[in-house]
Amino acid sequence: MAHDFDLLVIGAGSGGVRCARIAASHGARVAVVESRHWGGTCVNLGCVPKKLMVQASEFGDLVDDSHGFGWNTQRGTHDWPTLMAAKDREITRLNGIYVSMLEKAGVTLFTGHASLTGPRSVRITPTALAPDAPTQEITAERIVIATGSTPTRPSFPGVELAITSDEAFALPQRPDRVALIGAGYIGIEFAGIFAGLGAQAELIYRHDLPLRGFDEDMRTALADAITVRGITQHRNASPESLTRDGTDLLLRLNTGETLRVDCVFLATGRHPKTAALGLEQAGIKTAQNGRIVVDGLGETSCPGIYAIGDVTDRINLTPVAIAEGHTLADQLFGKAPPREWDFATTPKAVFFSPPLACTGLTEEEAARTGAVDIYLTRFTPMRHTLGGRRERKTVMKLVVDQASQVVVGAHILGDDAPEMLQAVAIAVTAKLTKADFDRTIGIHPTSAEELVTLRTRTRETPHTP
């Protein structure tokens, strides 16, 4: 049976766009369907606008720090609508770039909501992105689901009064008092944004430390940095109810405390965006949290239908979705062996002020396979000695497998941590040893040189399977 396309990609986020472009470059007839916004979550409601807002939140500190260097500068007032308008202009520009890239690659674009009507067919219905678009049904030999994820709302009385990250990017004014529920990437990053722009930020989370799943030393260091940033932490706490009192919101916690705020921000995770996709029509299996189950290639339980990115709920990071999309396109349509990625050493960054970045294993993870040597340093960066922000520390940690002396993990909290960590991730991916780090000459004076001058082992952690 002849199909309209060789490949149909549902979702024009980073992973879907890369998959479509690479498949088209191999000569495949490719189409992409997008229901909401070209570029997906990362470009529109995620990493790109978030990073711009993080950068905006740091200028006040830079003004204060400049006094120690002889500058007679004064803080002004921040205009939130101006920031939002500038952010929107940049997002619109990027939207156009994504559309242009697909068109130049020869990809056919459809706007609307796609739902499976069978293992090789999809119905496209109008959405707000193009309300006058016709309903149509198209077929493809292969289909890729790349619809990403969406914020998860917990269940408690009054939760409908709270916002998620989706709404935060469109707030008309910055709230003066904001309570953020959850201390993962999103909660911590937005707490830093709001605090840096002058709001009173309260961070509520269920555990002793933020960033569950990260290295314990770094979690402790980050908790200290959150306090230094002026953010109040409510540990081992969770929301019980949310009510409105005039223009205020009253958030009651299970600790018995009630917070009076202007805004409650839910940062309680995300889940795969699979609603109304018609997965049952193609017999596609899902698992806990609604994630689509795939094999090593990304194929679902329905032969010929694949899934990549956050909709599979594996490593929910934009570069991972891009790598998965690229690999899949090469596997399906390329003539040469597909490019390889090392997902085990995927670097991660949390864009707080200061940011945290890591690659490879935590100390706890590494100790499960054997004894490890730990190299740890904590210091005040050079800039802050004159700037007067001495309480803002940088923490660096190398996790070294004791038997082989291979550096299996690297963790940095401090200014420019993500920029440093990208290069360190190459070393960890290449399985370089501590001796390789030691024989590398440092750049002086920098914080990064600490990574190659850590000579004295801080401690030995025994094998703890």
pLDDT < 50 runs, ≥5 residues: none
Query: Helical region count?
Result: 12
Mean pLDDT: 96
How many beta-strand segments? 22
Q: How would you describe the shape? A: globular
Q: Ends: how far apart?
A: 54 Å
What level of helicity do the residues show?
A: 25-40%
User: For the report, how would you describe the main beta sheet?
Assistant: 7 strands, mixed
Strand content: 15-25%
Label the structural class.
alpha/beta
Radius of gyration from the alpha-carbon trace, in angstroms? 24 Å
What does this entry look like structurally?
The protein is 29% helix and 24% strand. The protein is of the alpha/beta class and 465 residues long. Strands 1, 2, 3, 4, 5, 6 and 16 form a seven-stranded mixed beta sheet that branches. A six-stranded antiparallel beta sheet has the order 17-18-21-20-19-22, with helices on both faces. A hairpin with a 4-residue loop joins strand 4 and strand 5. Helix 1 runs parallel beside helix 8, helix 3 crosses helix 4 and helix 3 crosses helix 6. It is globular and about 70 Å long. It starts with a strand and ends with a strand. The mean pLDDT is 96.
Features:
465 residues; alpha/beta; seven-stranded mixed sheet; six-stranded antiparallel sheet; 12 helices; 22 strands; globular
Topology:
Layout: E1 5-10, H1 14-25, E2 30-34, H2 40-45, H3 47-66, H4 80-104, E3 108-111, E4 113-116, E5 121-125, E6 136-145, E7 149-151, H5 165-168, E8 177-181, H6 185-196, E9 200-204, H7 216-228, E10 232-234, E11 239-245, E12 248-253, E13 258-261, E14 263-266, E15 270-272, E16 305-307, H8 318-333, E17 348-350, E18 356-360, H9 363-367, E19 372-379, H10 382-387, E20 394-401, E21 407-413, H11 417-429, H12 434-438, E22 459-461
Parallel strand pairs: 1-2, 1-6, 2-3, 6-16, 8-9, 8-14, 9-10
Antiparallel strand pairs: 4-5, 5-6, 7-15, 11-12, 12-13, 17-18, 18-21, 19-20, 19-22, 20-21
Helix pairs in contact: 1-8, 3-4, 3-6
